[in-house]
Amino acid sequence: MSKPVSCHGLYAITDAQLIPDKQLTAAVEQALRGGARLIQYRDKSTDATRRLAQAQALNTLCQHYEAPLIINDDVELAAQAGAAGVHIGKDDPAFATARARLGKKAIIGVSCYNQIDLALDAEQAGADHVAFGAFFPSPTKPAEIRASIELLREARARLRIPIVAIGGITPENAPPLLKAGADVLAVISGVFGQPDIQSAAARYAALFA
Questions:
Q1: Taking the domains of the chain in order of start, what are their residue ranges?
Q2: Structure pTM?
Q3: Given the DSSP bridges, would you call strands 85-88 and 184-187 parallel, antiparallel or unpaired?
Q4: 170, 190, 199 from 195: Cα distances, Å
Q5: Domain 9-208 carries which CATH code?
């Protein structure tokens, strides 16, 4: 898959605690039908065989919907599954290592928490997008570092690459983030923790219409 020109819209992130294994592919397909533009496979288990099988299945699905599949934290899994890219954080392999392993066409996102300097460094290194958050209390990561709307405004003024906002985002509290400069809303429980995943995704997607 070639790298998309821009990163924009709903970024739905899977969570093994919210989605039973047997329902993973169907749940992600519902999110894509609802309007998710990117999917991230996030699974912290140590079952390498299971994780590879799931990532490969999701990659096939995402290619059908022409949506990039991004792997959370695991550069090698992204390479093995043929995913579009990887999202790395402060404890993950260095950006240069990820780029060398996955190639120039890979989409590499970097978590920058509430630190504008990390984002500027990531952009300089060649990151495709950066993520800030959590902006609101998050059920997935209740003790997460908090980021502010002011940080988002500063980031938009200083960065040229797309900005992802994450953390407790709902269709109701998202508009100020978009107004402040977020290009992408990354959502976990707001999509995959809802009884109707497709409808939940559609509510976020409508914010970008």
A1: 9-208
A2: 0.94
A3: unpaired
A4: 15, 10, 9
A5: 3.20.20.70
